[in-house]
Design a protein that fits this description.
Six copies of one chain form a homohexamer. Chain A is α+β, with helices and mostly antiparallel strands. The first copy, chain A, contains eleven helices and seven strands. Chain A is globular, with a radius of gyration of 22 Å. The two termini of chain A are about 30 Å apart. At the A-F interface, helix 5, helix 6, helix 10, helix 11 and strand 7 of A face helix 5, helix 6, helix 10, helix 11 and strand 7 of F.
């Protein structure tokens, strides 16, 4: 079997490869028989497929999270790729059946992300911000480096939360260096914590859903509550100015009340945090979409960009300074 | 001196009475001389007045919070009442110079409010909700019964916060009784706590301003943080369903994200809490405005009611069932 | 045959019972054959089902309004209940074939609703309001107690219009009692009339549609026109203040121009009428939705609540003070 | 005394002429003395002026509606014209003291407007529409030809209502002729009636204010009620299709719910009526504003045009085909 | 074969006629086989149809732009007309296979449109406007008289762009004649040019799509750029007032920024141009929709009219003055 | 005379210094006398002052653009600084009377800005983008380095346009380096040209107003037209893909139609250009406002930031890594 991934096959090419079942919805066809609507995934992306006339046994076997050997043909359905399934079976214990092998990963290793983020913590000079950040980074360590940043849209992959944070820290560093008016420590502290509440809001890196706390409270308030609790543990007064500033950065980082922030930004660093959050999220989202768009074509309409579609320029206009 | 209050005088009537200086802004007239723009208050309401050619001594003497003997004439300026000052001096120690005598008060006594609210706490059957409410009512006791519910608009008087809460509890009781689907304990607990964060958001009952925490965090999140802290003190898990429901009621009570709630209501009692909050606030606000509007006339435009003006019907259409 | 209703069956349970055909849309399957998409109903609720390969005879027989004996199995399709039809035939003359037995009803009897509403009319002290209300209640009597309050969403059942009115009168009574500033007579008169135009706007209790007058004029203006006509009949001047106030309550009761009121509320009782209308409609709508939601789960998204879904708390958090 | 009108004088030119007092607001200056803020008018337009140190006698004498002899100088105050008053006295009985001589008038005579509108009534072929229009034109005859179409903005002059109606009828004729799909009778009937409710909404041609019915009901519903009443008088069923269509035209003519129509246009003629209403109002409003703007300059911001200012092109670009 | 057109057949009537393939989307059915979703057209309108089990040969043969002989039956599917295909083959060379015979056409001939537009150019008195209009009319002559005015909605037929322009010129003439304040030359010049950029924005009269320039620049800016270029060619300064006025008319003609105009109208003629554009587009769009709606029924919801549906009155209410 | 600037004086401190008259509005006081409302400026900022009882000679002498010797006292008026004028005279020819000495300047020298921008032009690899940028930079050279970026708000100082461009280029470089997907050449070209139309839209660096072209066309379209013209001069086809992309960047850079872009961003670099424009403008605007706000206080409400006020943290929280 070749080492090709699911997105390496051309339309109408036969394929045979191991993939992860990301989703498996059972439905009734109009003839009354059951079928499974699959989403298969490996690290090259996700593709959907229909499995007709599924037996009860097959339905119970082909569950999300399982690795399967998929044989079939890559097709196109109304402009979107799909797989025509010819044969499907579970991977055996002697085959590559570890689901984590098929999950999309952040493009930077866990160790590198951790080291670069820790490096930035050293640059947080204010002792209260520094201690709070370290306390919460420690407390939520495992989930923080494993969780995606979202169910779908931007950074929806394992490690996506840390990668989004890291990417924003790089932007934050460039901006803080360019403009003397910005308090770098405050901006770094806010950046590291701003989305950490997603470790409570979301259920984890696979089959990601919203928790009850996520639905009823939301990640913005969830991490704010943890900051206040961290203050109690660290015997820092939660009402002193620097702590209020940090909480304000977290609470205001969606920028607009309509986007779920209970307050709008009222300090400079809060406004900047909001804008670099948007900038990184937009570039990451468009980067993923354009990767799957043909040169010279428009993409599908993108929900997270107000339903706009984006044009991918022709190959001969590519930036020659980039590899 | 008669016992008339400031709103008892007719236009063009001479007056002499003790009043509280609520605000005293020093400005420069076009002739270069200083004048003080006063807001005088007693329990009948507030009226503005200008004090021309103020000396430095007078400016330092006539500070907000002082009680003064005011002699002058009640006039009308562009449809609004004002006082023409003929004479002004501080009240002496032998005169009624206690500022609290001139502050508008809730129409129900502190003792009665406390007793009726405590009575409702008994009806909160769920033990976690009951303990959290009692803990926070105890912790914020003094401020809760003394603070206004707002800087201006509705319930902007001493005790206004408790009075607004009490008034909503009465509505909550009627609604919970009428609709079996409503969980009364949850609705009562949410009602008592929903605005308690204003004891941190606002500076106090006189010369009320927003604190830094009020401006940067807001009363909704401030009390939510206290609920989480109360859970820690009371060894209640902050993530169990009943605690999430209660926090959700508080966080969602402004109804819309645009009004500063970080989540919209997603349980029935949260929706009801939001609506009875609006209902009580509207009636209280209109009640105050119509009290100062002539029968058969429209009021000024009311900022808190989207800039609408309201008509006060003629006296002969008054509800004969009300005294 | 058991006395179970359609919503009493579990998923995958076989069923056999009499139900009403609420809707029967004939469509073409992809194989070119016709099928009927049914909505079956009894007093426990409504469930959809597909009837494959329908003959012309069956299409002509299974019309909305007919009672049928349905044999099949309760299934689940993409989270929504549906019925797999195994056998279907019309009810005979010796079976319970009266369609009214299967229509959802207001939870209060017609007699009780009429008596309680009449009781309130006695409390309308202003003679003009009293006479107008009695005139129109009399004129529209039959339809008023039989019609639903809407095509779908809240109070979409036989008698729903009167039940919604009654429920609001109970709220109106509680509110009028609590706040002395409210004119109870005006609020009661406005409440009784506010939705009476729906007797012209809608076609009736079964297979409810909008009439041409409903589509081109709307229920708000339709009942306002009747008030003016009532004045002519009763020789009350339509331009005197009390009549203007009552018409204003009706015209303004949707609260916002965007919701179809030609004027926004400009008297206190109009604002209150609008708000208790919303409160009753919301609770009634959520009550129905949560009834069909599993404890511990979120409901479907509800169109009439801005597309929000609502969480039904676990059973062990139920209000113990309610049966 | 010259026959110059108030807008014929240059800045800094001395003036002496008879004018009408359109408004006279008494205020207190900062020195405590009273002054009158006048709006003077003649048929060339309106200009404001301040009358300092007004005595009680002068205040009682210089009332709105009086004609006065004004001597002073035309000045400019922050870009707006104003008059510096040097002398002011009431016109005597031997001088031109009839207020109607100073009111702006529609540019077409009453007789011509009446004749042209009546001519159009003949072209309304549907007998019900024809009879309703004639009935209401007759009933509201005096006010219809005397009232302005608004308090300010477009057509705010005596006869403005009839003139606006006439101007729209001319547009309606051109449009109906160009597009065969339009029912001319319906469009003419709707045009004649669409704003007739302003004869109840407004108080009259001088010192125009909103009546209580105008504030609480609004001109759209007020004329709709009269159409229904006309049907009763003329024994036309109010619920037959042609009457519903006509009422729909009136109710929908503001186009959007936000602009106070209780329904949006749902028939072609209703949409056209709305659009030609807007077209005539815009041209009339801009026509008035540009008349007082210097060539080559932008006008003030115009409230009725969403706050936009408009540019008046240079004189040498004038349309040479117009005189 | 009869000369009936596709919209002349009744539901369930057998049909056999030549039609144009307007669109042909190939899809996979749930059984895995391919089918073609056709849109057939002739001058009576467009109807969709499904062609099941399409072979690769048939897919390659039945391309958009081809004329076919269609045999089948007219049916109704969920309220919309559709064709059940019984037989389909390409038209031979001896049959009427010219696609232009089946395209909807403007109701006025090309020659008549050209002559009437040219006539209006003579009435543009300002020499710069006149020369620019003639230059661009000449430059874009072929496309201008052949293109539709839109992909769908109003004027989506061959010659639609010129017909829309002509229709607006007729309105412009009526309006300019009625209101002396309007500069007719400017309004005519703006009208002729306002949508000419669509000859670059759209791909042509058949199988109309947006070009890359259309998607990235838009027709408003595309024609503005051509005006500036025309000035260079004609040695007219692009910055003199009259040229700025004309460019402003074009740029502002969508009326609102939200509709894609980079500036809002700030001269009278720009406002008028915007409004008559809307008026003609609305009437044309509704005219088409109502033509396919049964008398006494509501149409489908119309996307281009904010999703409103429109009522077509009964036949006996038709305007008797129109044939 | 000391070398103190106008913002170096404390409240109530006497001052004597040369300043520039930035604005001088003549108004009438309530006593009928004229006064001049001045805005004085030097490089520390702008302060207003009133000059009472101005003679005609003084009015003609004290024109905007003149340098004057100002003696007076710095005061505070309703929270804003103002000057009480004691003496005022024009600067003589022997005194520092060159107005450019008093204009705020970009914090980077003209030479340094020019060199850094030219350096970036070298990095634009695509030859068409490179040639167009160089052509237009050359054509508009003088104005580009002298003009402000706005009348008020951000970068409203001499050289502000080039400084804003330079500052964005620095951000663009950081972003392009961090994300491989970005075409750096395109982003740099778009950044340099995006606001260059302001050299036509605005009148110049002193007494900045909008030109007629600025008001009627706007800077976005004005520079787009120049790009097309540059193509003609350089014999580059205006319709090839790379030119369309560059024009799209310019046209879309306001991000939303509501902000005046005729198209929204539909390529990645256009979205990024829009976001870094916003980021630089926000930081620059806040930087200026916070500079004049006391530590520990909130600023005035800032129009360009949706009316939000911003908090300046206490001095002891300053970033210790910045000087």
């Amino acid at each position: 079997m070749s080492s090709k991934k699911i997105y390496d096959y051309q339309v109408n090419e036969d394929l045979a490869l191991f993939v992860l079942i990301k989703a498996a919805d059972v439905r009734s066809a109009k003839n009354g028989k059951k079928f499974i609507s699959f989403t298969f995934a490996d690290r090259s992306g996700e593709i959907s497929a229909k499995f007709w006339n599924a037996s009860e046994h097959e339905i119970s076997e082909f569950q999300p999270g399982k690795v399967v050997l998929l044989k079939g043909k890559r097709e196109n359905y109304q402009g979107n790729p799909q797989i025509k399934i010819l044969h499907l079976r579970l991977a055996t214990e002697f085959e590559p059946n570890d689901s984590s092998l098929y999950l999309r990963q952040a493009p930077v290793s866990f160790e590198k992300m951790e080291s670069e983020i820790n490096q930035t913590v050293f640059e947080i000079i204010n002792p209260n911000w520094n201690r709070i950040v370290r306390y919460l980074l420690n407390k939520n360590h495992a989930a923080f480096f494993k969780y995606p940043a979202a169910k779908k849209n931007h950074h929806a992959f394992a490690g996506g939360l840390a990668y989004h944070t890291l990417s924003m820290l790089r932007l934050a560093r460039a901006v803080a260096k360019q403009y003397p008016v910005i308090n770098a420590s405050l901006l770094y502290a806010g950046t590291i914590l701003h989305d950490m509440g997603k470790t409570i809001e979301l259920s984890g890196p696979t089959a990601t859903t919203y928790t009850l706390a996520g639905n009823l409270i939301g990640h913005i308030v969830l991490i704010d509550e943890q900051i206040v609790e961290a203050c109690h543990q660290l015997r820092i007064s939660e009402n002193q100015e620097d702590v209020l500033l940090l909480r304000h950065l977290i609470l205001a980082h969606h920028g607009l009340l309509e986007y779920g922030s209970p307050v709008r930004p009222h300090i400079l660093e809060a406004e900047v945090l909001h804008q670099i959050d948007q900038l990184d999220a937009s570039i990451q989202m468009l980067s993923g979409v354009l990767h799957h768009t043909e040169p010279g074509q428009f993409s599908e309409k993108i929900f997270g960009m107000d339903g706009r579609n984006f044009f991918r320029p022709s190959e001969d206009l590519k930036d020659p300074s980039k590899k």
